[in-house]
Amino acid sequence: MYYLIFSIMCSVAVSILLKISKNQNISIKQAVAVNYPVAAISAFILFKPNFGSNFNILLSEWQILLSLGILLPAVFIIMGECVNRAGIAKSDAAQRLSLFLPIVAAFLIFGETLSTGKILAVILAIVSLAALVYKPKVNTYNKGAAWTLLGVWLGYGIIDILFKQLSTNASMTAANLCAVFVLSAIVLFSYLILKKTKWNKASILGGIILGCLNFGNIYFYFRAHQAYNNNPTLIFAAMNLGVISLGTITGTIVFKEKINVVNIIGICLAIIAIICLFYTRLNS
To answer: For the residues of 197-263, what is the DSSP string, one character each?
Structure first.
């Protein structure tokens, strides 16, 4: 259980770091760029990937790996903007709601049959997302918040689909994870070099911390699944519910984020949707 708690804390801590980035003179793009080499080195040390035996797998999946290498940093940057515009509570909820996109993709693209429970969960997730982006006319909240929330939801949903595709092909290995981190670093560093970015110490330090937290989230989540290998659905549900709950508490209490009644309903619906999916998986 400690692994799961640490994973949830790391996930929300990433959002907190993104939230305070502007006040600490941290460039999100620079921090995200530095984050990936740190995550890659951490994965190499702790997971000890065998690149030799997995070389053919890496070559066969280069399209998916390259897509992830581009999408991961792009969506991470959108997440940073979303946290600053919409707040931690809404951003974490939108990110967790993205897990329903692969369900829709499995139905529309791969021809899988949707159960009643999954259909209900997807409907609740869509309604929840609509409630999260709602803002009354009298609210002067940042107009870009809704677009960043949709970007987070769609972006992480596509990333999840790509990762699931790797898992389906039995090629989701530690070597692949390292390769994705390295490709992400190359893509974003190349972009920043072309933009002739002036680096600063705060962004580099922020990137190192971000990389540790980002990988910590992955590592502890992986260890939690190992510890409870007989009940992965429980870990899946607890992780998503934990992040939404802790993110909401942190955003509203620590950062005094303004959330209207409809937004609160949206967060509650997100939790209910995940619980529905949990019971659907449990009974399947």
So the answer is: ----HHHHHHHHHHHHHHHHHHHHHHHHHHHTTT-HHHHHHHHHHHHHHHHHHIIIIIS-----HHH
What's the whole-model pTM score? 0.88
Asked if 239 and 32 touch (Cβ cutoff 8 Å), the reply is no
Write out the two tokens for 157: 């949903």
- 208's tokens: 């190192």
CA distances from 113 to 93, 117, 247 (A): 26, 12, 33
> Per-residue confidence of the chain (284 residues) as pLDDT tens digits?
789 999 999 999 999 999 999 899 999 999 999 999 999 999 999 888 777 766 776 777 889 899 999 999 999 999 999 999 999 999 999 999 998 888 888 777 767 777 888 888 889 998 998 888 887 764 544 567 889 999 999 999 999 888 877 765 555 567 888 889 999 999 999 999 999 999 999 999 999 999 999 999 999 988 887 787 776 767 878 899 999 999 999 999 999 988 889 999 999 999 999 988 887 776 76
- Rg of the chain, C-alpha, whole Å: 19
Q: Sign of the C-alpha dihedral, residues 39, 235, 13, 251?
A: positive
In contact, 144 and 90? CB cutoff 8 Å = no
